[in-house]
Automatic annotation (TrEMBL):
SUPFAM superfamilies, alphabetized: 6-phosphogluconate dehydrogenase C-terminal domain-like, NAD(P)-binding Rossmann-fold domains
UniProt name for this protein: Mannitol 2-dehydrogenase
The entry's keywords: Oxidoreductase
InterPro entries: 6-PGluconate_DH-like_C_sf (IPR008927), 6PGD_dom2 (IPR013328), Mannitol_DH (IPR000669), Mannitol_DH/Oxidoreductase (IPR050988), Mannitol_DH_C (IPR013118), Mannitol_DH_N (IPR013131), NAD(P)-bd_dom_sf (IPR036291)
GO molecular function, one term: oxidoreductase activity, acting on the CH-OH group of donors, NAD or NADP as acceptor
UniProt xrefs under Pfam families: Mannitol_dh (PF01232), Mannitol_dh_C (PF08125)
Mannitol dehydrogenase C-terminal domain mapped to chain residues: 286-472
Annotated ranges, domain Mannitol dehydrogenase N-terminal: 30-277
Gene3D superfamilies registered for this protein in UniProt: N-(1-d-carboxylethyl)-l-norvaline Dehydrogenase, domain 2, NAD(P)-binding Rossmann-like Domain
Recorded superkingdom: Bacteria
Length: 492
């Protein structure tokens, strides 16, 4: 019988399961984290748990928080097990499980409760995993989206915010007025210069309602950039059964992840930080090159395999990587067009990093799905593919592969795979994307009319020619012919 996870049942877990050896009741409140999803618990919460297990950083306990209705379900699941989470590392050489105890509370899903928690002077870091699309970026200008209804509401009602950024402002205002030092705001989302993007959103929102507060934030609040990495699939019945059957734990919200993690942060924490370098995190003066390496090679690689694999009917990522054409397509695009856009990093081999990425994608234990990689393309393509395309165009290098990737996405947005099976909507802008994609059957350039996604790239003649040529090839001859054409270097 599986043991129901809780603080009181930790001693009853099988000996094969790791568990906190530290006193969770003695942990101090140090961090409020907004967005307690799988990635956070497999990554940041895991690092802190490792640190606490070493007997260090016990004043940096995690307080969970959420701002969306869906966060309430996660809070309810974790509340029933004293905020504990089972993390299973899916190592092909042998799975291992550990119960993570670094979260000690979870604020009620209420804006005022979140503001109150952040305003506590004991909180020195407020961290975020709210997805790449959660920062109110105007895709047309790549600037702050001041016209968004959520932003307009928070600007007009700063004491009754709806967004996490409005809550951060309300909490910072309280701390400023009370003479308390401000907390550091740390984004953990997959965004280029995530700290700078976060700072812009916070300060521009403040500027709309309280310019003096905006000035104070610019002078006193730190927003360090960071690069985070750990492939973490969604939790389904498959994962829950694994935790129950293999490890004897009844966990309402387990997490599975790959046995690889990387966390590189700018060392800019005026109110202090946990000594995470003791457990493998890297602190550097400038994270930008590490960040671009990961965003372009890993996230760009995910985008590269996602849409052709979906069109061919692959379900799991490791199955797609077992398809010789998909692996060859990934390697060719990375080496020909993605990696050449990166500046060297002392001591880092991009070729070795690519080999690591290929092996991680091919790990059969992870059970990551192609569907997950295809999610939210209208937000992910502008983050992971289009910047690479823009840099490549500036250098006058070939863009056939990148144009091919966008063509695969366009074909995917039509809503059926190559066997005629329906593809369920998985993008907030699905209806508009499908309309543009279907129109591209008559005019290959119709898809590029989506200015919200493509911006000025839509008018670039080199990209337009390559995209029209590649999309026509995919539509008329299919994914496999398109891949073979690219691999052979044939212009089609």
């Amino acid at each position: 019988m599986a043991v129901n996870l809780s603080e009181t049942t930790l001693s009853a877990l099988p000996d094969t399961v790791g568990r906190p050896g530290y006193d969770r009741g003695a942990l101090g409140r140090g961090i409020v984290h907004v967005g307690v999803g799988n990635f956070h618990r497999a990554h940041m919460a895991w690092y802190l748990d490792q640190l606490f297990e070493m007997g260090e950083g016990h004043d940096w306990g995690l307080i969970g928080a959420g701002v969306r209705p869906g966060d309430a379900a996660m809070r309810d699941r974790l509340a029933g097990q004293d905020w504990l989470t089972t993390v299973v590392e899916l190592d092909p050489d042998g799975l291992n499980a550990r119960v993570i105890g670094s979260m000690i509370d979870f604020v009620p899903i209420d804006p005022q409760a979140v503001v109150h928690a952040m305003a506590d002077p004991a909180i020195r870091i407020v961290s975020l995993t709210i997805t790449e699309g959660g920062y109110y970026v105007d895709a047309k200008t790549d600037g702050f989206d001041a016209a968004h209804p959520d932003i307009a509401h928070d600007a007009a009602h700063p004491d009754a915010p709806k967004t996490v950024f409005g809550m951060i402002l309300a909490a910072l205002r309280r701390r400023r007025d009370a003479g308390s030092e401000p907390f550091t705001v740390m984004s953990c989302d997959n965004l280029p210069e995530n700290g700078h993007v976060c700072a812009r959103t916070v300060t521009e929102l403040a500027q709309l309602s309280d310019p003096a507060l905006a000035d104070w934030i610019r002078r006193h609040v730190a927003f360090p950039n960071s690069m985070v990495d750990c492939i973490t699939p969604a939790t389904s019945d498959r994962e829950r059964s694994l935790v129950s059957d293999r490890f004897g734990i009844a966990d309402a919200a387990p997490v599975v992840c790959e046995p690889f993690r990387q966390w590189v942060l700018e060392d800019h924490f005026p109110q202090g930080r946990p000594p995470l370098e003791r457990v493998g995190a890297e602190f550097v003066a400038d994270v930008s090159r590490h960040e671009l390496m990961k965003l372009r090679i890993l996230n760009g690689g995910h985008a590269a395999i996602a849409y052709p694999s979906a069109l061919l009917g692959h379900h799991f990522v490791h199955d797609a990587m077992a398809d010789p054409q998909i692996e060859a397509w990934l390697r060719a695009l990375e080496t020909r067009e993605i990696i050449p856009t990166l500046q060297p990093i002392p001591g880092v081999s991009y070729d070795e990093y690519l080999e690591l990425i290929v092996s991680r994608f091919a790990n059969p234990e992870i059970g990551d799905t192609i569907l997950r990689l295809c999610l939210d393309g209208s937000n992910r393509q502008p983050k992971f593919i289009l910047p690479v395309l823009a840099d490549t165009l500036k250098s006058d290098a070939d863009v056939d592969g990148l144009a091919q990737e966008v063509a695969f996405w366009c074909r995917y947005c039509e809503g059926t795979d190559e066997a005629g099976n329906a593809i369920a909507p998985n993008d907030d802008n699905h209806a508009q994307l499908r309309e543009y994609a279907l129109a591209s059957r008559r005019d290959p350039l119709a898809f590029l009319q989506n200015e919200t996604v493509f911006g000025p790239l839509a008018g670039n003649p080199v990209f337009r020619e390559a995209f029209a040529r590649k999309l026509t090839l995919v539509q008329k001859q299919g994914v496999r012919t398109a891949i073979d054409t690219y691999l052979s270097g044939t212009r089609a």
